[in-house]
Amino acid sequence: MAYSAEVLSRARARLAMAKEDRESENREHLQQAYAKVPRLKEIDRQLRATMALAAQAAFTQGSDPTELLEQARRNNLLLQQERAELEALYFEEGYLDDSPICENCGGSGYIGSTMCECLRELCRQEQKKELTFLNVGRESFDQFRLDYYPDREDPKFGVNIRTIMEKTYQTCRRYAQNFSERSQNLLFSGDTGLGKTFLSACIARAVADNGYSVVYESAGHLFGNLERAKFSADEQARKDADRYMTCDLLIVDDLGTEMPGQFTTAALYGLINDRLLSGKPTIISTNLTIEEFEKRYSRQIASRLRGSYTRIPFVGEDIRVLKNR
Q1: Domains in the chain: boundaries
Q2: What's the CATH code, domain 134-324?
Q3: From the centroid of its chain, how far is CA 152?
């Protein structure tokens, strides 16, 4: 799972802050405990010194250290027992618990070269914040309503509209639940107001919840960023352009509503082609047909969409209009 540098940086910063807060709290509790029960400080000093003194004595005397170390171990057990009794007598449970912020990695975020689950969870949270910033993240599959789609035959497909949309809904839900870096590319196709944006947002949220990096972008904003990244010194646009190529799932909403032109066509071809070559899944929603893609963009783009994307149909009547009746 490829998180953007910004997401990873924010997650690491949060983990480092949490680690420092935990260590600071532990130090503060310990100093308060020492002030309240001075014997605790003496016990801790003795615990630190006992084993070292035993090893030093054995080395100095040139004798077998086994007996001396065993005696030190017994003394330590007695000291630890006394410490536990004092802690239970004077403090609430867990007050002097000095465990790290994460038992698995100690708060470093990594176990060897593998990202620890504690850092991975923070990355998931930061990823969802990005989706929320883009007005994505509140949508849920449970909110989808099939009753907005007429229970009658669609003249174009010759199939019941509600039946088509129920299949579309189930396909989207399974895609989100089973998403992996090997998932297929999807092309959401249909008129305005039929739920393409809603279901793509549902997928974005569910996939991000499962720990994958998701970029959800309107076509107009995406091409604007790509143009600024290419022709200006806009650092944020450059970072966004990198994210479009490296994220686990890219969702491009409302393709075909952006300003047309040679740059847009070239950028779209590059984006689609590069993500196909790298095996990274992409979802595109559009009001255009494949034939209209060929006219608006190019035959090459239409060919790639036709051959490498699974078309998901959206049919019915404009839901926004239905809601306002």
Answers
A1: 5-111, 134-324
A2: 3.40.50.300
A3: 40
